[in-house]
Amino acid sequence: MDAIVRMTEPEKRIRDRSQTEKAILSAAKRLLAEEGFQGFGINAVAREAGFDKQLIYRYFGGLDGLVEAIGTELGSWVKDRIPEDTGGMFLLTYGDLMERLALYYLEALREDPLVCRIIAWEVSEKSEVVRRLAEARSKALGHWLDRMKGTLVPPKGVDTVAVNALVFAAIQHLVLSAATAGQFSGIQLKSQKDWDKIVVAVKRLVRGVYG
């Protein structure tokens, strides 16, 4: 019986640590989304999670490690929400690839209000925490593109970094505007019919540049 106890106790501690880490991460993301980055700190996260702050130091090494973990989860968000397939679309050109990624990103943001709130804080707050979280998502999108493009190349003379940044920035702003105002620049962003128009516009923009 003693042998069984000695085998199961470490397993129980591992399970408890895993659950505690998840609870702390969830509390940290919830706090960011609801309160923003100015109120984000070890004590605030500990209160939100209902754990002693020493556990944050023990499991994450402090606030920097916690931010790093959130950034990793944002990278995983891209992987989970933006599948590495073409949705039945055969990719012949770089334009095909960018159209698919833009539409995936639009759909993923519309379905995840928590990430939208985090993005809203990213564009309104200037801090190291904001910079690192924004970087994590940008890198994840870049990695997706690198894995998917294979031998596809953009048309000569096109600044892909600038063009793609504009497309993704426009998508983010439209989704955030829909959540706060339900419209942008006179364009309604409430019904599926409204968003169908945006999808068509995104396709035309991408095709106009990449063909």
TrEMBL record:
<keyword id="KW-0238">DNA-binding</keyword>
<protein>
    <submittedName>
        <fullName>TetR/AcrR family transcriptional regulator</fullName>
    </submittedName>
</protein>
<feature type="domain" description="HTH tetR-type">
    <location>
        <begin position="18"/>
        <end position="78"/>
    </location>
</feature>
<dbReference type="InterPro" id="IPR050109">
    <property type="entry name" value="HTH-type_TetR-like_transc_reg"/>
</dbReference>
<dbReference type="GO" id="GO:0000976">
    <property type="term" value="F:transcription cis-regulatory region binding"/>
</dbReference>
<dbReference type="GO" id="GO:0003700">
    <property type="term" value="F:DNA-binding transcription factor activity"/>
</dbReference>
<dbReference type="Pfam" id="PF00440">
    <property type="entry name" value="TetR_N"/>
</dbReference>
<dbReference type="InterPro" id="IPR001647">
    <property type="entry name" value="HTH_TetR"/>
</dbReference>
<dbReference type="InterPro" id="IPR036271">
    <property type="entry name" value="Tet_transcr_reg_TetR-rel_C_sf"/>
</dbReference>
<feature type="DNA-binding region" description="H-T-H motif">
    <location>
        <begin position="41"/>
        <end position="60"/>
    </location>
</feature>
<dbReference type="InterPro" id="IPR009057">
    <property type="entry name" value="Homeodomain-like_sf"/>
</dbReference>
